[in-house]
Amino acid sequence: MGMSTFLGPTLKFQYCYSCGYQKAFQDYKTVINEKYPEVIVEGENYNPPDYYALIARTLGVLKLLVIMCILSGTNILGQSEPSWWKWCVENKLYSCMMLFFLSNVIEMQLMSSGAFEITFNDVPVWSKLETGRIPQAAELFQIIDNHLQFQTKVELKPGFAK
Q1: Any idea what the Cα angle at residue 22 is, between residues 150 and 121, rounded to 5°?
Q2: In terms of C-beta density within 10 A (0-12 exposed, 13-18 middle, 19 or more buried), how is residue 152 classed?
Q3: Which of 24, 57, 93, 97 is most open to solvent, judged by the fewest CB atoms within 10 Å of its CB?
């Protein structure tokens, strides 16, 4: 259990940093802190699956190795050079830039989860991965109100053993 569970209700956001959802999180945090000062709002990056991260890292290493081979003119295949490899060696700057940018696009695609997940006291209340969209502010307020109302009813029930 985290320390925040003893301080009050916690609303936790997990978002895709590379998708630009950090700004949406900051906006929601500001509005929620104004309307619900008792709610602790936390946010963190939603990491992609481990195998995507591994593929992206491997691609990054391979990219650098191929760029070094192009710059040094090394024949990586050990056989007669194909025409595309000769072109890469003859046009080092263009081929290295093209390889660098194309592999970066693929790496970014692998690392982008598209997530905007929300939990209230560790209970999932919204998932962009499931719904395909970020909640509107009114929807989020209704979710918070419902959970706070339920929490208050449970805490104020007379004769309930604690």
Answers
A1: 20
A2: exposed
A3: 93
* SS3 track for the chain: CCCHHHHCCEEEEEECCCCCHHHHHHHHHHHHHHHCCCCEEEEEECCCCHHHHHHHHHHHHHHHHHHHHHHHCCCCCCCCCCHHHHHHHHCHHHHHHHHHHHHHHHHHHHHCCCCEEEEECCEEEEEHHHHCCCCCHHHHHHHHHHHHHHHHHHHHCCCCCC
Q: Which of 50-59, 71-80, 97-106, 147-156 has the lowest mean pLDDT?
A: 147-156
Beta bridge pairs of residue 12: 42, 119
Residues written for the chain:
162
Please give the domain boundaries of the chain with CATH numbers for all domains.
Answer: 7-47+114-153 (3.40.30.10), 50-111 (no CATH)
pLDDT band of residue 106 (cuts 50, 70, 90) is: very high
For the sheet containing 10-15, what is the strand order? 40-45, 10-15, 116-120, 123-127
